[in-house]
Task: structure prediction
Amino acid sequence: MSTPATAATPSSRLNRRVVAISIGAALGGFLFGFDSSVINGAVDSIQGEYELSDAFTGFAVASTLLGCAVGAWFAGTVANRHGRIRVMVLASILFLASALGSGLAFGIWDLVLWRVLGGLAVGAASVIAPAYIAEVSPSKFRGRLGSLQQLAIVTGIFTALLTGQLFAGAAGGASEELWLGLEAWRWMFMAEAVPALVYGLAALRLPESPRYLVGRGKDTEAAEVLRLFSGVQDVDHKIDDIKQSLHLEEKQSLRDLRGKALGLKPIVWTGILLSVFQQFVGINVIFYYSTTLWQSVGFDESQAFLTSTITSVTNIVVTIVAILLVDRIGRRLMLLIGSAGMTLSLGLMAIAFSQAITNDAGEVTDFVGAWGTVAVVGANAFVVFFGATWGPVVWVLLGEMFPNRIRASALAVAAAAQWLANWAITVSFPQMASIGLTFAYGFYASMALLSLVFVFFRVPETKGMELEEMSSDVKVKRGKFVEIKGGETKIVD
Result:
């Protein structure tokens, strides 16, 4: 596991070319965020247009997340066989088709089909971008480059919210006609066609991952990518390291993830649980239902929409902070700080909602005393702690913690678990809220507390480690990789 003294060393300076190709790959994250959030401004209009019940409206919204899980599951296998770039191009085509199809949908099932298609693209992008960025980045800068994925996601969310607000404002309402006889909500969907085209064209200009090229015996092409983009000086030695870690005699498949721990390797379970905890703290509840929260403390609809947009901007700012810190203080410490902060802020929200005044339908109408302000402070503090830690750092870890031979497949499984967890939290919130928001946010606070324990015992620090140092058979003990030989435990440097 230790890096040999003769190992290839990357340049101490951040190559502009690797920044450029990392941004190009992260455009998939932008579409990920845009596609996930664009439905927010259109959902009421869709419900009215097709006369849907609340339950079916919820299904129509959440069905995209199931498409995301399927796209994430298969993206790793396709990327291993055909390359990272081809998956990016395929995702861009699916994004484009979904954008145009959703905007021109003639019925609800037609719309659901196109949204699921977009979900496939989102799932694929959620796997390929972090894997590709990790594989082209120098270890010294891999954290901040990997964080570009989350920055792109939150920027996409903000852009979707802003675009929806502008289109609805120009038309006098999301359900009103805007251009060419089409309602504003339809243009919200079709606006995604522009970044989808940009993503596809950008992907065609990106170099293929050097680790994929070595796996296909294209050492000369891999050497050029390593030299020009990753800044590796001893290219031949680096390629030998990659070959050794890939075990070229074995083909990559989901079977490589098998282990003794409940059927999967321990490091794969770590990735899955990171993904699940990232969603089970309830971050998407804040983004999907924040307008309701703001209205419950006295904001009118326009103020609530503006406040949600401001929250999105806050998420962008704290993600930039995370990019500046992740390679300095490490992944594990940031997650520990985030878990502690989220536990406190979510607990504060749970206590605040215990002081809420509700109507006969169980909806919050007001708060006793200043508890409404406390709820808002808690919600914003939660967004800050999540956005500065768990939001970007989980994607960084998923991109770099798996060994070369199983990286794409393991990341696909972890990302699929993340989308299923997202779906479960999204569809369960209305039922949990019917029991009481104190119960809902109490549950999320308990998940944040469990994530703190999980990170302390099971999540390794990968700061500064080369991807070739990662092993699928190594275990994790209190945040450090350990090797167990002859009954003795040895800390891996």
